[in-house]
Design a protein that fits this description.
The chain is built from 4 helices and no strands. By secondary structure, the protein is mainly alpha-helical. It has one domain. The longest helix has 35 residues. The two termini are 20 Å apart. The model has no long low-confidence stretch (mean pLDDT 85).
């Protein structure tokens, strides 16, 4: 149990402090967390800014990449919310 708590704290820390941004984004998308309030599901403006800066393309291509990030974030948030509801229902059923 203590190991699980330690790993959850490490995961939260990595979701906020991991550098560079591509590695942090990869870590966010590695799996869908069951906690809908997990830091990996926060909108990371630094990631969006880095996406736009790194593409160095026309503005509509930058928007497209940022929109893909937003779509994926929304998808992961919805899945986490559904898991959170299922877990709370299971806890209430006990």
């Amino acid at each position: 149990m203590r190991l699980k708590v330690l790993l959850e704290h490490i995961d939260c820390w990595l979701c906020v402090h991991l550098k560079p941004w591509r590695l942090r984004l990869w870590w966010h998308c590695l799996w869908i967390r069951s906690d809908e309030f997990h830091p990996s599901l926060d909108h990371q403006t630094s990631i969006v800014h880095a996406i736009k800066k790194s593409h160095n393309l026309k503005w509509f291509e930058e928007c497209s990449a940022a929109e893909e990030y937003d779509k994926d974030l929304n998808r992961r948030r919805c899945l986490a919310h559904e898991r959170s509801l299922r877990e709370s229902d299971a806890m209430l059923a006990r």
